[in-house]
Structure formats: C-alpha cells, structure tokens
Design a protein that fits this description.
Layout (H helix, E strand, L loop, with lengths): L4 H18 L15 E6 L7 E5 L5 H10 L4 E5 L2 E5 L8 E2 L7 E2 L2 E5 L2 E2 L2 E7 L10 H57 L14 H4 L7 H10 L2 H12 L1
Antiparallel strand pairs: 1-5, 1-9, 2-4, 3-4, 3-9, 6-7, 8-9
C-alpha cells in the first residue's frame, strides 16, 4: 500500500500531538541551588511587588532568568511573552496544579510560560537567594477580604431582627388601643343605662289623712236636695192628702 506525502505528514502531526499531550510543560518544583534556575511551581497570582521587566515574542525561561539575575532578583516569573522579577514567591494560597501551566514559551515550546485559561504563572528561583519566602501581603489581603465579608453580613442579621421587633411592638400597641376602646365603650353603656332608685317609697302612716271617712253631711245634703226640689214637694203634699 502506497503512502502519500500528505498522509505521512498527518501521521507525524498526530504523533507529535499525542507526545505533547502526555508531557507536562511545567516541571515539578525542585529545591533551589545557588546560581541555578529551578522551578518552584505554578501560581494563580503575582507577588504584590512583582515588576514586568521584558515582553518578547521569543520569550524563554533562560531569557527571563538572565533579566532577573542582572537586577539581583530572587524570583523569575513567566506568563506568555511576559517576564516578571520579584523578591518573593507569590502567596502560598495561590499555588495551583502544575498542569494548569500549559502554555508553551514563544521562544521554546518545550518549556512552560504560564497559562491563559485561567491566567497562571510559571515561577522559578534564580539561585540568588535560596529561601526568598512567600508574599505575605497578598495573604493578608485575602484574610482582610474574608473578614470584610463576615462583618458586612452581620448588619443584615441585625436589620432583620430589628424589623421583627418593630412589628411586635406595633401589634402590642394595637392590642392596647383595642382594650382601651372597649373599656371606654363599656363605661359609656353603664352611664346611659337608667338606674333604679334604691330608696324605699315613703308611705303615709296616718290612715286618717289618706282614708276618706264616712261623711255625716252626705245624707242631709241629699235630703236637702230633695226638699228643695219643687216636684218632690208636690209629691209629698199629695201623699199627705191621701
């Protein structure tokens, strides 16, 4: 079976891609040595006092190392085509897995110059100072942010409690007003209801003053009326004649 040139080239490209996928560009961290460039890991942040000293389309780890050694810096940091120098490593809390530093250096693809998604940095010790330490200022900033988040949460809880208490007081005030109104209505009803006098009626104990006596003048008055009547006189005279 004949193999064309294009087919052979495709096989070479696929094989190279498989080899690159298996090889990690970022070497594991090593113990620093005097006047030797040694990898120290992959970090997600820069030290607070890091300075960019060079930007080159042909950036390599060796080129960045030479720039930082010239300025007597202890740490060399690479990200893409950028070279940074610093006196300390980035914050220890920003250390990430070496696999994230997967961007080849522009000047030498077999070396890692950080990463782009997310942005990470390849960090090296220049051999000037073996134990430069980690950036403490950045760690303190992270602690301050955590403290600020905790403090800002507290007033929200207090505000919520305050609203609940205000609602409770308003309800009690309403109940008190209702009780007062009911008491006033009761007093008004009591005042408008007629009250029966508890004083016993006075009875006149003198029967002579209240009981009519037999009048002796009643019969004579009736007789006097009959005698004074002319018809009665005539009848009386006729009876006498008979």
């Amino acid at each position: 079976m004949a193999i064309t040139k294009s087919g052979l080239l495709a096989l070479v490209i696929v094989g190279a891609a498989q080899v690159n996928a298996k090889v990690k560009l970022q070497p594991p961290a090593e113990y620093p040595e005097i006047n030797t460039l040694t990898p120290q890991g992959c970090f997600s942040a820069l030290p607070s006092e890091a300075n960019r000293v060079q930007q080159s389309s042909f950036m390599t780890t060796g080129q960045c190392w030479e720039n930082c050694k010239k300025d007597h810096n202890s740490v060399a940091i690479l990200s893409g085509n950028n070279c940074y120098c610093a006196e300390t490593y980035p914050a220890k809390s920003s250390l990430v897995d070496d696999s994230q530093c997967n961007s080849p250096c522009p000047g030498y693809p077999r070396e890692a110059c950080g990463g782009t998604d997310p942005v990470v940095y390849s960090v090296y010790n220049t051999g000037n100072v073996l134990t430069p330490g980690y950036d403490e200022d950045q760690d303190n900033d992270d602690d301050s942010k955590s403290t600020a988040s905790t403090v800002s949460t507290a007033p929200e809880s207090i505000t919520t409690t305050h609203v609940v208490k205000t609602t409770s007081v308003s309800t009690n005030a309403l109940d008190t007003t209702t009780d007062t109104t009911t008491a006033k209505e009761t007093e008004t009803k009591d005042a408008s209801t007629p009250t029966t006098s508890q004083i016993a009626p006075v009875v006149n104990e003198n029967p002579a003053a209240t009981t009519p006596s037999a009048s002796t003048s009643t019969v004579p008055e009736n007789a006097s009326s009959r005698h004074s009547n002319p018809i009665g006189n005539v009848i009386r005279m006729m009876m006498q004649l008979l």
